[in-house]
Amino acid sequence: MLHGARSLYTYTSSIRKFGTYFAERRSSYADLIATLRKARIPLPVDKYLARSAVISLLVATGALLLSVLICIPLYTFFGAKVFLLAIPVPLVFGGIAYYLFSYYPKFRSDEIAASIDRSLPSAITYMYALSRGGLELVEILESLAGQRHVYGGVADHVGYVVRDIRYLNIDIINALRDASERSPSRNMRDFLDGLVMVIDSGGSLTEYFKIKAAYYYERAGADQEKYLNSLGMIAEGYITVFVAGPLFLMTILVVVGMIDSSSILLLNALIYGLIPGATILCVVLLSTMAGSREESYHVPTTTKKLNVFEGVEVRHADVAEDELFTQLGTAEKIQKYKKFFKNPVKSFFENPIYALYVTVPAAFIYFIIAVYMKGYLKIGPIIGTLSGATGAASGAYAMEFPSLSVLDDVAVFGMFVMLVPFTFFYESRVRRIKNMEREMPEFLRRLASMNEAGLTLTSSIKASLKSKLGVLDSEVMRMWRDIEWGASTSVAMARFEARVRTAMISRTITLIMKANEAVSDIRQVLQIAAADSEASYRLKKDRLGNMTEYVMIVYLSFFVFLFIVYVLAANFVGMVPTGDASENLSQGMEMLADYDADKYILLMFHATLIQGFCSGLVGGAMGEGNAYSGFKHSIIMVAIAYATFTLLGLA
Question: Cys-Cys link to 39, which of 109, 232, 523, 580 (CB 3.0-4.6 A)?
Fold first, then answer.
């Protein structure tokens, strides 16, 4: 305990000394000070740099000790000069650690800026709709700040404005100016600066919100064009580096294998290490880029969890209120499990990830049974000698594991067992949500026209049951049933939002719910919501349409890879003569006797399977912004690769 306290004291005093050093040079870090503020890192610059320096020194010290420990066994073979290799190691690792700390505020501020830009057009539309109802600006900002689950970074940033006004007693002009200075998003700064000018000049906030919403939606389209251009560059780079590159290296290593058998180790590293590793990096990069665009269809629940007991007070003579609510909550969870087991397929459609809870164990069981049926999993008594006894039958059991080639069929079909059901439910849900988002603008326009004819929002929902929209009809029916059973219109809509779980529908429903609570004339709000959802859907549709060509490029590159690898395996490796060195020399060829053509063919077979699976994930990340959508492509490509090698007699 004393040692721990002493270490903590040393760490703290080191930070204090470095902090004094950086505090004296504070003026040299003006850019970093601004970046820390934009990144919302609540540390002064001298303390942040002091921590960075101390941790970097600790990393450098650890790297030095580790490198010395590695060099000690090598001292016998290479002598004292081997320790010279340990000198640059701490400098490199310490420098990398300090650079990462220096870059982190910029990275975090860029993430916040992307989050703000992603939701800014719809957030301004939300403000525009509420301003049409006559709400004051501060009330609009408070309402927006409370919708963090929908408007993300914008709601967070506006929350600071509300805090300054309500709790720090700062006037709204200075609060907006301060928010503009600390905003990492250029679009947000432009919006806040314009808002300050409108307030100063006494202009119309409603008209300003309307103009800015249209402007930022138009700008979002231009930004999407830049994103698609960047995606095209990544697609070309992926094909060149991660498809053509491995193909070129495989060809070289197969040829070199006739001279040097150790090349097969490099071929194993390429197929089982480099290709999957490079794919993971590519998918992470594409997913990160997609995160700055419109959200994909796999968005998790965007609504706050509905509290069905909110506002309910219970008085019971024997049971305490808290205990009773606990019992009710437990009963609700039990009911969910009953609902799942009563109709699990419906639960899979609503939440496809549940399918993996079934298919993963099923794939494992299939693997065990398939290996056992092939005769490679043998269980039986072994006659042996126990300690202290001779000739006695032991109770031990043995398992004979098959070689990797025998497991190919089992592994491929096991993957199908695991992923095909999940992919079916996931794609069915995606298709259903796409149809809902396509139908949502028309549904809102119909509600607006009915409201204009004199119907309330609740009556308009009931009247819309008679008109047919498609997939959305069933959800409208569920909303009306909730209302019939006593739920308010806002609660019924919130439940609809929780069921669907997409960003666009969540924003639309939130806008209508809040406007319905604050605005007497809901018709204009419904028209605004219809225009907002239509603009959002149009952006997403244009993006998915343009990305189709990149998915086709991934497919073409895989087919080229498969064709060349198959030709290499069938017409080159399969015809290489093997035998002892004298036989090979008599045929005019000088080869090693241990050249194993079957092993190379097996490796190339595995290369096509791995490349097919990885290319599918990249195709999903390019086409729809997430790897889940790539599983369907992976299944198709793996099936084609498997059929090519097995039906044509190579595997």
Answer: 109
* Burial class of residue 603 (count of CB atoms within 10 Å of its CB; 0-12, 13-18, 19+): buried
Q: Tens digits of per-residue pLDDT, 320-379?
A: 556 666 766 676 667 666 666 676 777 788 788 888 888 999 989 988 888 777 655 554
3-state secondary structure 345-358: HHHHHHCCHHHHHH
231 or 7: whose pLDDT is higher?
A: 231
- Three-state SS at 477: helix
Q: Which residues, other chains included, contact 356 with Cβ-Cβ below 8 Å and sequence gap of 6+?
A: 418, 422
Identify which of 296, 347, 272 has the alpha carbon closest to the alpha carbon of residue 499: 347
Is residue 508 within a helix (H) or strand (E), and if so which, with residue range? helix 503-518
Buried b (16+ CB within 10 A) or exposed e, 83-96: eeebeebbeebbee
Task: Identify the H or E element spanning 526.
Answer: helix 522-571
What Rg do the C-alpha atoms of the chain give, in angstroms? 32
What CA–CA distances, in Å, run from 416 to 115, 363, 372?
A: 36, 8, 19
Q: In the prediction, which pLDDT does 227 show?
A: 74
Q: Dump the DSSP string for 359-401.
A: HHHHHHHHHHHHHHHTT-S---EEE---TT-SSPEEEEE---P
Cα distance between residue 191 and residue 213, in whole Å: 10
> Is 184:39 a contact under the CB 8 Å cutoff?
yes
Which tokens sit at 563? 């064709």
CB 108 within 8 Å of CB 39: yes
DSSP one-letter string for 589-601: ----TT--HHHHH
**Do residues 261 and 594 lie in contact, with contact meaning Cβ atoms separated by under 8 Å?**
yes
Cα–Cα distance between 505 and 435 in angstroms, integer? 12
How far is it, in rounded angstroms, from Cα 137 to Cα 131?
A: 8
**116 near 292, Cβ under 8 Å?**
no
Distance CA 443, CA 523 (A): 13
Confidence of residue 195 (pLDDT cuts 50, 70, 90): very high
Average pLDDT, the chain: 77
Least-confidence region, from 157-161, 389-393, 475-479: 389-393
Distance CA 161, CA 173 (A): 10
In angstroms, the CA 273 to CA 266 distance is 10
pLDDT score of 81 more than 50:
yes
Instruction: Express each pLDDT in 406-443 by its tens digit.
Output: 677 888 999 999 999 999 999 988 888 888 888 888 88
Write the DSSP symbol of residue 273: I
- Do residues 619 and 633 make contact, with C-beta atoms less than 8 angstroms apart? yes
CB 271 within 8 A of CB 610: yes
Rounded Cα–Cα distance for residues 423 and 432 (Å): 14
**Cα dihedral sign for 50, 55, 58, 59?**
negative
Residues sharing a CB contact under 8 Å with residue 207, sequence separation 6 or more, in sequence order = none
Nearest residue to 281 (alpha-carbon basis) of 232, 223, 248, 237: 237
Q: Are 371 and 410 in contact (CB under 8 A)?
A: yes
First to last CA, the chain: 62
